[in-house]
Design goal:
Chain lengths: 341, 302
């Protein structure tokens, strides 16, 4: 399988007519507020370096205004960078010609938007096939593919509805179907589920995870919600004021928050669901008959231990061979949030 | 002693161009334009010849169509546009009255003039509106021109049109178009500029070319506004038929003009009301049609 990872290197974005003049000052440590007050330019992104893994979900997280949307829009260059590179399959997207960029957008990327951005004058099916219609697919073929994906997101039978006849959750399913119909390697989702209420949001997350099991796309998912980030992200990068403050797996971030800003973020997290048994596992075997699969969450492990009435268990790999052991004490210790950073 | 007498001459009396100079200045421009007309009049007339032929053909067609067929066709058009039985009945009654009162032929002539000029306004106005929406600089150039076209007294531009083309159908048509084209241009521009940025961004993200974006996203979403522009253009064209009759556009307008010249009260009223009746039909039908276009383009909730 081709490597569909994306390398973001030394990316800077300064909004304003002469952004490039201020890169040096920002490098030398000028803050976002100072840049805005003194020079009337807005610091969007500062020296971003993220290596987005192929066929995995990369989450970018941060509070409002931290630069998430700005970041994701550099991948298909809806926003021009001030300096830096975005490398995909050996090519710098920031240097592509207009025509190449258009083809790249058509064939390699698809995007889902926070406010859905459906075409109000088109029916559900015509919205869904918009991307491949742009590419010049025949009507019959386009309809067939669109129908397939509408069915996959649970919208069979709604083909002839107009967006304003659907609920928000259904509209975003159309948005997702439209992106999937493109069959692109890169799927970009800018707060795609943020406008939906919690139950529907969980629902959409499940649909996405289910589809990803078989599609293996490189997904860049933006959210300001840590629970969503931890549930979806194979890798998470946290932005603040246009800078990456920490990146790694969900577990790494929860266990070792880089600073107080991130500690604040992870304080409320259900650690039992994020941390894996492998993290608290010791080399000693538990010397019991209870076996817990590697990669299980602490919550699941604790439940198994209690149900079995055991105080320790073996951790086994996919083939069933023991690779270590856990105790109920270590498990529960790790589930309790440490007092401070 | 008035204030004027206390002031030095320069401030009391406006420093005018000399009488002779002014006369020569006006004469000079007039003469230049006359020369231009003599030299290019024929070329310009040839340029407009196809339009003239079309206009003549269309007017003849309307006049030659038997009245019952004409009423049926017009009612059908009203039905297609408005989907309202009331409107269809009102149209039929209005047309019947117009015919009964002896204004059928003039109404057909006016209808032909208004239809052709609306067609010309749309054919020129929408592309111009698109160009304006695409570039701020084009917009900055065209907006003042539109302002002039809408405020300059119609009689003023009748003069050069008359000098260039004489009296006849085409000058009448041009006069109507100059007056009626601004709304369709303005509202095409506005409609395109008002299209939701998020939707445009989505089109970009999927790799739409500028042309695809225009025809698949911007124009369809601008359609309700664009249609409001067409509606206003039709109304203004109708309002202009009396003035246009001064330079040879026959129809209800020339009857009104005749009534004014001879103080025929009833003739004036009847033809005036016929214009009003046509205007109401056009207006309601195009508004209803515009509303129907808008149905799905309204708010997206969620
Ligand atoms: N076109 C622009 N011109 C000037 N400043 C901009 C522009 N777009 C974004 N910004 C600024 O860049 C910063 C990052 O904005 P961005 O939209 O990327 O944030 P975000 O993390 O997506 O926030 P949200 O969660 O609210 O969507 C903000 O300070 C914003 O004001
Ligand atoms: Mg955003």
């Amino acid at each position: 399988m081709a490597d569909n990872g994306i390398e973001v290197k030394n990316l800077y974005k300064i909004f304003g007519p002469h952004g490039d003049r201020y890169i040096q000052m920002v490098e030398d440590g000028m803050s976002k507020d100072e840049l805005n007050a003194k020079h009337g330019h807005v610091l969007g992104l500062k020296n971003i370096n993220i290596s987005m893994p192929s066929a995995k979900i990369q989450v970018i997280m941060g509070l409002s205004g931290s630069g998430k949307s700005t970041m994701i829009r550099h991948i298909n260059r809806l926003i021009e960078p001030t300096s830096g590179e975005v490398i995909y399959q050996g090519q710098d997207i920031c240097k592509m010609s207009k025509a190449d960029l258009m083809n790249f957008r058509r064939e390699k990327t698809a995007m889902v938007f926070q406010k859905f951005a459906l075409l109000p004058h088109r029916t559900v099916i015509d919205n869904t096939l918009f991307g491949i219609e742009i590419q010049g697919a025949s009507r019959g073929q386009a309809e067939e593919r669109a129908k397939h994906w509408l069915k996959r997101v649970g919208l069979e039978g709604y083909e002839t509805y107009y967006p304003n006849q659907l609920s928000g959750g259904m509209q975003q399913r159309v948005g997702l179907a439209r992106a999937l119909t493109n069959d692109a390697d890169i799927l970009m989702m800018d707060e795609a589920f943020s406008a939906l209420d919690p139950l529907i949001r969980m629902d959409m997350q499940s649909i996405l995870l289910e589809l990803q099991e078989e599609l293996h796309k490189t997904i860049v998912f933006i959210t300001h919600d840590l629970d969503e980030a931890l549930r979806l992200g194979d890798k998470i990068a946290i932005l603040r004021d246009g800078e990456v403050v920490q990146q790694g797996t969900g577990q790494e971030i929860v266990l070792n928050p880089a600073d107080a800003y991130i500690s604040d973020f992870v304080k409320e997290v259900n650690r039992g669901r994020v941390i894996k048994v492998d993290t608290v596992m010791t080399e000693n075997s538990g010397n019991t008959t209870l076996r817990i699969a590697s990669g299980s969450s602490l919550e699941d492990a604790a439940k198994r231990l209690i149900d079995a009435g055991e105080t320790a268990a073996d951790v086994v790999d996919a083939s069933g061979a023991p690779i270590g052991g856990i105790t109920i004490k270590a498990t529960i210790d790790a589930m309790v949030t440490p007092a401070t950073h | 002693m008035s204030l004027k007498e206390m002031l030095p001459d320069v401030l009391a009396e406006f420093p005018k161009m000399g009488r002779a100079d002014l006369r020569d200045f006006k004469k000079g421009i007039d003469e230049t334009f006359r020369v231009f007309t003599r030299e290019n009049g024929e070329a310009i007339e040839n340029f407009f010849y196809p339009l003239k032929m079309f206009m003549v053909w269309f007017e003849k067609l309307l006049l030659a169509t038997p009245w019952p067929l004409m009423i049926v066709v017009l009612c059908l058009l009203v039905w297609l546009g408005a989907r309202s039985i009331t409107m269809v009945i009102m149209t039929a009654v209005a047309l019947f009255l117009i015919g009964y009162l002896g204004m059928w032929d003039d109404t057909m002539r006016t209808l032909a003039l208004v239809s052709v000029s609306t067609f010309v306004c749309i054919a020129i106005g929408i592309p111009v509106g698109i160009l304006m929406a695409k570039s701020d600089r084009t917009q900055a150039v065209i907006v003042p021109i539109l302002d002039i076209m809408q405020t300059i007294p119609a009689f003023v531009y009748l003069i050069p049109v008359l000098m260039l083309l004489g009296i006849g159908k085409v000058p009448g048509l041009i006069a109507v178009c100059i007056y009626a084209i601004p709304p369709v241009v303005r509202l095409t521009d506005l409609g395109i500029r008002l299209v939701d940025k998020d939707v445009l961004e989505a089109a970009d993200a999927f790799g739409a070319s500028p042309t695809q974006k225009m025809f698949k996203v911007q124009l369809p979403l601008a359609l309700p506004n664009l249609f409001a522009g067409v509606n206003q253009t039709i109304m203004m064209a109708l309002a202009m038929v009396v003035v246009a009759s001064l330079i040879g556009a026959h129809g209800l307008g020339s009857q009104v003009l005749k009534a004014v010249n001879n103080q025929y009260l009833t003739l004036g009223m009847m033809n005036g009301l016929a214009i009003v009746a046509i205007a109401i039909v056009f207006d309601r039908v195009s508004q209803k049609f515009g509303k129907r276009l808008q149905k799905h383009s309204e708010t997206i909730h969620g």
